[in-house]
Specification:
With 288 residues, this protein is an alpha/beta fold. It has eight helices and ten strands. The site of S-adenosylmethionine has 19 residues, from helix 2.
Amino acid sequence: MPHEDPADPHAQATALLGTSAIARTRVDSTSSARANRRWWDADAAQYHDEHAAFLGVDSPDGEFVWCPEGLHEGDWHLLGDIGDLHGKRILEVGCGSAPCARWLAAHGAYPVGLDLSRGMLERGLAAMARGGPRVPLVQAGAEELPFADASFDAACSSFGAVPFVADSARVMREVARVLRPGGRWVFSVNHPMRWIFPDDPGPDGLRATMPYFDRTPYVEVDADGTPTYVEHHRTLGDRIGEIVAAGLTLIDLIEPEWPEWLDQEWGQWSPLRGEIFPGTAIFVTEKR
Ligand SMILES: C[S@@+](CC[C@H](N)C(=O)[O-])C[C@H]1O[C@@H](n2cnc3c(N)ncnc32)[C@H](O)[C@@H]1O
């Protein structure tokens, strides 16, 4: 995610945080969380300028979009039939402005949205202040969930938290802990194979430049070398291993194809690349 381009949709955050270089270096949980909390606070406005309409952030009842390929929970039912959402306690991890949680509430569920970034949550509060269902929002990190064991019937995450944490195995264990037996945990992330290509939606993004097996995080740093943005890579095998080790059963793995109706790019996600290889992986799991 290089940020030198003046048309860069993250220019405000980059300038605010003084991002000046890209590093490939180990970053622990605390530093990753600190960098990403500051990043999402700084980027919240531009993120929403660019993506709020696609995500339905300002729709009265929210929307539940799983990925840049536009899969909607209302069509895919990855959390179960819409009729069965009624009365379910559902945790949304890395909810941002919580359009997904608000959509779940509009369908009768009792969702709670959790996110590290106050800036992202505040955008959700602003949307809720204009009407529609109100959802409790909690500011906390996904590696240590502030909820009791077995307190949710289901959990979900649309690109929230999982790609950004140093210890995603711990997130899997934490979500499993707060789920009741049989509860579903569905989360979408960058497809692991995207790691090997530059973050470029065009032809330059079709040439592999990184080893798939190199788990060294992608880190942006300021002039002092302090991380300002961190992304962590896991292979497909890593993700499945973490799911199984947490006491979850993998039920399905969705690799969305780029739909014909969609010509809108989202960062490195584009029709060009989406027609050739997947940009998103959606893991559908259940607590044993
Ligand atoms: C790509 S945004 C997705 C937000 C929302 N799900 C959406 O679709 O717009 C990633 C979100 O994950 C949150 N996040 C990053 N690291 C986190 C962590 N360790 N714990 C909880 N949330 C985190 C960010 O603050 C941000 O809101």
